[in-house]
Amino acid sequence: MTTTLTPSPSSVVAPTHSTSAGHLPKWAPWALLLVAFIVSATIFAFVNVGNDPADFNIALTLVVGLIFYMALIMVISTLVESRRHAIDRLMTALVSGAFVVALLPLISLLYTVVVNGLMRFDGEFFSFSMRNIVGEGGGAVHAIWGTLLITLGATVISVPIGLMTSIYLVEYGEGRKLARGITFLVDVMTGIPSIVAGLFIYSVFSLIVGPGTRMGIMGSLALSVLMIPVVVRGSEELLRIVPNELREAAYALGVPKWLTIIKVVLPTAIAGILTSVMLAISRVIGETAPLLLTVGIVQGMNLNMFSGQMATLPVFSYMQAKYPGIPVDAYLDRAWAAALTLIVIVMVLNLLARIIAKVFAPKINGR
Predict the structure, then answer these.
(1) Helix axes 313-322, 328-360, angle to 10 degrees
(2) How far apart (Å, rounded) are the C-alpha atoms in residues 73 and 32?
(3) What is the distance between the alpha carbons of residues 44 and 353, in angstroms, rounded to a whole number?
């Protein structure tokens, strides 16, 4: 007969340390962040005493404040909570701080463009060209129309070519040498400088039409050289993530491959494809060097893309800032307003792309 010995409560060995520790309240990190920013702002305000208040460095104040916050949260969390919690909070602060630092140049750029561009963001700017304008006044309506037409032409050229190339790479050329060669060339084209695209188109038209030829269609072709690789790579990745089960279900119903691509694959990936197209447009709409070579600049309206030079917003902004007349401020104001107009156009196009993608995207559960 065996007897089982049950240890008494007093004989159980107690743990050598407790797993419970203190915990900072939810408001504590925000309070420490506020204190860190106040300390940083105080230091830089003291350094800036006697100088113009506009010289106060907001970006550097935020960066130094984030560094102070990381040190504070690390020390206080170690004392109140534990070292493990302190390291976790430090890593969270580092990731969040990196995000804020990455946003600072973008916020600074947008702020500068908006503040300076609003000075000439008026009705005259959007209804007048620069024909017979010397000094103040005038506008960029000719450059706005030129940018829209040339970018539209580049999109009409690039999207069908890029989309059909990506369809071939995903649906037909998997594992083939030709597909690998196309992928390699597309990767090479992605990294070419924009000036090279402009020189290529300018050289081709110089051989065919004659030296010194500049037309709107040349600008569209130069931009399409830059757009096609972006559309191909973006569309290719999105077509690859379409589940194969959808293709197989269509094949099982007897649907041919080409119709499966049109009716199943493309509608499934339409939202992402539109996003990649918008990225490509955003990539080229602000290019200056290829348009300066292929399109040139004029002071009046020209809507014929196959005859004569045209004005575009990037080139217009560059020429106004690079070669100002008298008064200088009038030319710089027009340059900033053109830059702000470009940003607004890109934002509007992105919103339209999102709306179109939402309308045409496949509905799930009737939503």
Answers:
(1) 160
(2) 7
(3) 44
- Give the 3-state DSSP-derived string for 65-118, with helices as H, strands as E and coil as C: HHHHHHHHHHHHHHHHCCHHHHHHHHHHHHHHHHHHHHHHHHHHHHHHHHHHHH
The model carries a pTM of 0.79
Q: Which amino acid does the sequence have at 2?
A: T
Q: How confident is the model at residue 223 (pLDDT cuts 50, 70, 90)?
A: very high
State the Cα–Cα distance between residues 196 and 294, nearest whole angstrom.
11
The pLDDT value given to residue 283: 85
Distance CA 111, CA 206 (A): 42
- Measured distance CA(328)–CA(68) in Å, rounded: 43
Handedness of CA 32, 34, 37, 42 (dihedral sign): negative
CA distance 166 to 179: 10
Q: Are 140 and 337 in contact (CB under 8 A)?
A: yes
* Domains contained in the chain, CATH given: 24-120 (no CATH), 141-360 (1.10.3720.10)
Q: What's the pLDDT score for residue 362?
A: 63
How many C-beta atoms lie closer than 10 Å to residue 262's C-beta?
13
Residue 324 burial (CB count, 10 A): 15
Give the angle subtended at the CA of 289 by the CAs of 279 and 275, to the nearest 5°.
5
- Distance (Å, rounded) from C-alpha 138 to C-alpha 156? 31
Q: What is the pLDDT of residues 114-157, one digit of tens each?
A: 988 888 888 888 888 888 878 788 888 999 999 999 999 999 99
| Nearest-10 Cα torsion for 300, 304, 308, 314 | 60
| pLDDT (0 to 100) of residue 16 | 42
Residue 309 to residue 219: CA distance in whole angstroms: 10
